[in-house]
Amino acid sequence: MSNNTTFFDIHLHAFNLSHAGIMIFLNRYFLNNALTFEDLLNGRFRKIIFKVMFRPKPLKSLAANFFSLFIKILLILIIVILVGWIAFALLLLILNGIFNVNFLSLTTWQYSAILIVALSDIIFITVAGLIIWLIIKKKIRTSVRRTINVLSVFENDLARQFQYLELDYLRLCKNEELKKLIQSRPNKINFREFNREIKELWNKSEKQIYINNKPFNKVILTPLMMDFGYKGFEGLDKNKIHYYLAPRKQIKDQGIDLFNGIKQYYDYSPVKLFEIYPFMAINTANLEMGDEPEQRFSKTLPEILETSFRDFECESFNKRYERLNKKREKFLSDKNYIDSENYYYAGIKIYPPLGYNPWPDNPTEKRKVEFLYDFCQKRCIPITTHCSDGGFVVIPQKTAWEYTKPERWNKVLEHFPELKLNFAHAGVQAYSKTRKWLENILILVNKYDNVYFDISYNGVETKYYESIAEYILKVCKSNNLDIEKIKQKILFGSDFMVNLFDINSYHKYLDLYSQTKGFDQHFVKDDFCTVNAERFLFEGINS
User: Fold this and answer.
1) Which of 133, 148, 143 is nearest to 74 (CA)?
2) Looking at 69-83, 88-102, 361-375, 444-458, which range is the least confident one?
């Protein structure tokens, strides 16, 4: 490999609402993670409204910001109306009480004065309402469009999601006829005919896409699975909820959906631009070691890891890539592909806000994470951990931040210094508006040879790339860090489909990455999506 003609998106997702659950989706997208079943069941509506209105919002968070703004404006409008009518009522009381006015004996001009005051109130309220409406009108339209766009993806099957991505990439080719065909596709479409036309035009072209003016003939995607557990439903009071048992789609069932989607993508894609290497989701809190007195699950943590990664070893990236690619090809050619024994994973994804504690105090839980890290370190299995103060949250927010912060990994890396670990989202702290987490990540990257970080989701605005480049240089200088080493550990990621909360399309995200000049002076931007990603995904320790 290592010919730099392969583009890597090291961080994206392929799941739907049956995986995440409507509660988690609404909470993340609309309510700024302000909602819990406990608050709902106990009638703590003021607490929920307060969180929605006044908790800081991550990034642009269009839907969450709009929902918060709508509530604030609604309250302001109600207050304006009340103040207006109270003022009018007080005027009448004053006239009737203090001046002992008999309304039946008022002259025409006195009635006119009262009417003018009343009309002034009505005009004031109307103008205030109109101004408020003009303020939110544009936001309503944009938010509705964004919401429907997001739901269109989240409600779709996974094969269609991969097809969406492929069409976005194909728009980056230089075949104008092909780009025009994709952009002008009708609402009602015969996909068989559409795919046939795409294939013909692709075969007539140079079969390359261009990102940052660089040609690529292949794209490697690593969809990261997520163990949503019980989706926030666990612990429901059976005295209040009749169907209190927590719903759950087990990770093995999510795996079936994902690999079904991969197989169908390869069956129907006209160009097969992608090689797809998923990361398995692991939450040790939802698994057992197998020697517990009472076992709840059919598969244990050791069994799952052994089944999925038994042939992994620390080796050169060429051998790792060849091994994984052969497994991928075997899976695609096997008629019994639905058998989980044929699934292939390239790494592991963990997600602290869903309840994963990287270094728990509880001895039983610590034993499980130690087993996981030891297993991965010995086999050079890459791990990506969520590392931002946003995301999907099913535990208390403060606990989620405590589990997620990079300092939580200090003990892990002290005990497992060769662990291959990627801090997702570059530790962005959108709530507190600080970058302490990123500084701590950079220190860990400088200290440990196999620690990386990706810049996924954050590139919904080009100014992010400019600011993070400046900040990395600043931290390296102030902490005497090896900037050349840091440059080799930065990874490109999109966080599709989650990034649709703040951007309209994957194509737009790629376009912004191509456009940014933020890395031009001191960094090699192409390395983030080529050699750095290849090293993280396929290379053994210090190869």
Assistant:
1) 133
2) 88-102
Retrieve residue 139's tokens: 């936001």
C-alpha span between 352 and 398 (Å, rounded): 12
Residue 188 confidence (pLDDT) above 70: no
Q: What are phi and psi of 6, to 5 degrees?
A: -110, 125
d(CA 131, CA 113): 27
pLDDT of residue 543: 41
Give the span between the Cα atoms of 35 and 283, in whole angstroms.
Answer: 23
**8-state DSSP, 224:** B
Nearest to 520 by CA among 476, 470, 479, 477: 470
CA 21 to chain centroid, in Å, comes to: 15
Q: What share of the chain is helix, strand, coil (3-state, %, to 5)?
A: 55, 10, 35
Enter the tokens of residue 309.
């990664």
Q: In the beta sheet, which residues pair with residue 6?
A: 218
In this structure, the strands spanning 6-12 and 218-223 are parallel
Supply the mean pLDDT for the chain: 84
Q: Give start and end residues of each alpha helix (H) in 184-230.
A: 191-204
Q: What is the largest CA-CA distance in the chain?
A: 101
Q: In what order do the strands lie in the sheet with 6-12?
A: 6-12, 218-223, 274-276
Q: How confident is the model at residue 401 (pLDDT cuts 50, 70, 90)?
A: very high
Question: What is the domain partition of the chain in residue ranges?
Answer: 6-16+156-173+208-538, 37-154
Six-digit token string for 148: 């429907």
Q: For 6-16+156-173+208-538, CATH number?
A: 3.20.20.140
Q: Which of 247, 254, 267 is nearest to 224 (CA)?
A: 254
Q: What is the DSSP letter of 426?
A: G
Give the span between the Cα atoms of 290 and 262, in whole angstroms.
31
Q: Give yes or no for a contact between 16 and 158, defined as CB atoms under 8 angstroms apart.
A: yes
Q: Which residues pair with 215 in a beta bridge?
A: 210
**SS3 for 221?**
strand
pLDDT in tens, 39-79: 555 656 555 555 544 455 554 444 455 555 556 666 666 77
Rounded to the nearest 10 degrees, how much is the dihedral formed by the CA atoms of 231, 235, 239, 240?
Answer: -40
